[in-house]
Amino acid sequence: ADSLYVSEYFSQSAQKLSFYSWYGNAKLFHFRVPEDTVLLRWLLQASRGKGPECTNMEITVHFRYGAPPVINPLGTDFPANATVRPSYSISITLSSAVQNTTFVNVTTPAAGDWFIAAHLPEAAGRIEVKGFSTPCPYMFQADMFVLRLADMPVLEPGVAMPQTVVSPAKALHVKVFVPKHTAVMRLELRNCLTSEQKVCAVRIVLGSITLPQSFQRIITCVGKVNCSLALDSPPWDKWLQIMVESLGAANASVSMEMLASFRACRPGSASSFLNFSSLNQSQTGPRPGSAGAAGSPPLSTGETSRNTSDQRSFCLQTQPVVREDLDVVSVRYRLLNGPSVPVNSLSPTLLLLSLNTGMDSGGSLVVNLLLNKTSVSLANATVVACVSAASPVLSLNATHNCSTAFFQGYPLRVSTSSLEAMLIVLYPQTDDWFLSLQLICPKGQGECNAAEAKVTVFAYLTPCFNDCGAYGQCSLLRRHGYLYAGCSCKAGWGGWSCTDVTKAQSVSAQNLATLLLTLSNLMFLPAIVVAVYRYYLVEASVYTYTMFFSTFYHACDQPGVAVMCIMNYDTLQYCDFLGSVVSIWVTILCMSRVKKILKYVLFVLGTLLIAMSLQLDRRGVWNMMGPCLFALVIMIAAWVYHGVKRRHCYPPSWKRWVFYLLPGITLAFIAISVYAFMETNENYYYTHSIWHVLVASSVAFLLPPRDKHKKPWAWSQKLTCRYQICQNDREELYAVT
């Protein structure tokens, strides 16, 4: 009946999309699908602004179950030994319509975490000054509708349960719980008949859909009364959903008996006493006189032979592993019996790597195997390993296939010719992960029944593999309460872990960029000399301050290896921005020729207001344009006042206009145009250097001449006395009578 189904709706707030340059530009949505869901529908809504800057745009949306999608819109390289499986994605086009609504349906989805990532095309790389241009807002919102069965029938192991498919339009949904250590699950359909007592035609779907890859098992039972299917290594400790669809006539029902049975795998492991002893001594360190760092006492010869004979009765050998949480998305797995694990050919050795907290899928799982060459007695023997989620691979020696019932694992292999192997799983899905190892001989298993190999296992979860290298920065990203990490590359390097050298800058190019951005500030020296020569000492001090902090800020701001920071980066940036704006402020006020007392009051008051505005918004365009416009108003008002008072154009000299003011104004306008409209990430080092040169040169031209009553610096006249380097001035005192 319809009342058996319950519909639920989940929504998250819309996010503003960004053009893609690294993973942090992709907007992530995190949902959790409840158990017994039979239908999942995504409602994807994309919209854009209505301004003229808004153009046709294509939005890419990626889906993944269990972890954030691993995407590569730029086509860059992934690190070596990394496993990459393409994500499931769709494109949404915003053309003439302001809004686009798209539906995506998923039948029988897997319960748990689902992630959606959306982004715009590749970023153009242009550096836009905040306030000069208004970017078009592109918004994206994802909503989730689920339809779940309130009372889904449960199959009990070993008990035949009669079921009925009412019609082809309505499928039958049942579920069965798969216990831990299940090696094989077998599903049987018995006495499958229609309501007309004919042989049924049904389709059976085992498992749920997971994106980007789905490993559902499908049986088509046509013309048979009994059908069966066996699953090797089904997911442990999980509910397995089974759907039965009728392929017969529309008005005919189908009845059957369903039977689920399991074959368990008997695990063998070290004794609990040894495990606790190892855990205790590994935390406190080896005691004096102990047998080894692992803390396990040596076994006698009889115990060793008895353990070897017992291995034949076990289908796997488990090694105790401790999960040690180090930080956010940072976990280390420690083997209690030491980093080396014994591997034989009789049964696989199993290690559990727990990643089921819900907060572990935002990093990278790294598994490193190192074979002890002296431990292998057979030169041609190979240790085959498989990393899988949900359930382990239990038959490595039979087919060499690294796959379970619903998961394609990641194979590894070490031998005497290749002693080391590494695997990097990017954004591993939330689940229990297993590492299976087994010794394989090329001439058959009988050759290495008595052989054993020692393999050192290093396994850990890290936010970013290799910390993004020398040319990347590992950034911790957040979506609501979910944390994940991504690499932001620099100096032209690219890729998931900043290992792609396609557009990387060479060391010489990095040195050249640093020299251009720092040495171009020396163009302030002419302006400083002119200011000192004309007795503008306060202005010269401001230019010196600007030159110093701009030089060392750009020396610290470099993305590559040519970096030198004399103090905190944020402090250098603030001082550079403050000096740049105050230099423009004092230069224009100096050109206005107001009274000295008023000029210095405006110097101090303007500097304080500029410091406050930069603290509020350091990159706002009005932090520079505001003081410039206000100072220009003061300068124009002062020039008009001087011109009216003298009844002559001010400044009065045509030479002053032609040789100083017009060149200085031209240089300033060119500098502003380069700064606001020409800078990109690729040409920044020379366009910004041009900005330094043009601004500093314009200051030297725009500074007004010195006051007429002041004499030029005449050092030779001031140093005429042999014993004193000062000049005595006589003051006339007048008595008032």
Automatic annotation (TrEMBL):
It is a multi-pass membrane protein. Disulfide bonds join 464-474, 489-498. Residues 301-313 have a biased composition (Polar residues). Coiled coil: none annotated. Residues 281-313 are annotated as: Disordered. One of its GO terms (cellular component) is plasma membrane. It is found in: Cell membrane. InterPro entries: EGF, NGX6/PGAP6/MYMK. The chain crosses the membrane at residues 512-536, 597-616, 622-641, 657-678, 684-703. This is TMM8A factor. It comes from Rynchops niger (Black skimmer). The lineage of its organism: Eukaryota, Metazoa, Chordata, Craniata, Vertebrata.
